[in-house]
Automatic annotation (TrEMBL):
Annotated ranges, domain Glycosyltransferase 2-like: 42-117
Pfam families to which the protein is assigned, alphabetical: Glycos_transf_2
Membrane-traversing stretches: 6-24
Taxonomic path: Bacteria, Pseudomonadati, Pseudomonadota, Gammaproteobacteria, Enterobacterales
Domain of life according to the entry: Bacteria
GO aspect biological process, one term: protein N-linked glycosylation
Annotated InterPro entries: Glyco_trans_2-like, Nucleotide-diphossugar_trans
Protein's recorded name: Glycosyltransferase family 2 protein
Coiled coil, from the record: none
Entry keyword set: Membrane, Transmembrane, Transmembrane helix
Amino acid sequence: MKWLSRILTVIVTMSMACGALIFNRRHQLKAKTRNFNHKSLTIIIPARNEEKRIGHLLHSIIQQQVPVDVIVMNDGSTDDTARVARSYGATVVDVVDDADGKWYGKSHACYQGMTHACTN
C-alpha cells in the first residue's frame, strides 16, 4: 500500500510541476497601438424600444477616436428610440419587413443595416 501512496505522490508532484511550467510560460497579450487605415467605420445598431438605453450607448460611441457612422435600425419601436438616436447624430432607418414574412428580428435588421452602410 505504501508503494501506491508513493506512486500517487510522484504523479501529483509531477502534474503540479508541469502545470506550473505551463502556467508560467503562457503568453501575455501586449497592448498594441491601433493604426486604423480606414477613414471611417460604420456601426449598425438594431434597436426596438431602446429609448432609455440607446443614448448611453451612442454617447460612448461618439467619444471614440475613430470616426464612425452610426446606423440605428429602428425595428418597430413604439417609444422615442428614433428621436434619441437622431439627437446623437445617428442615421435612423426603419426596418422593412421581409416580403414573405420568414425573415425578421435582429438578424434581419442587421442585414438591412449593412445594405445602408457606406464603409467596408
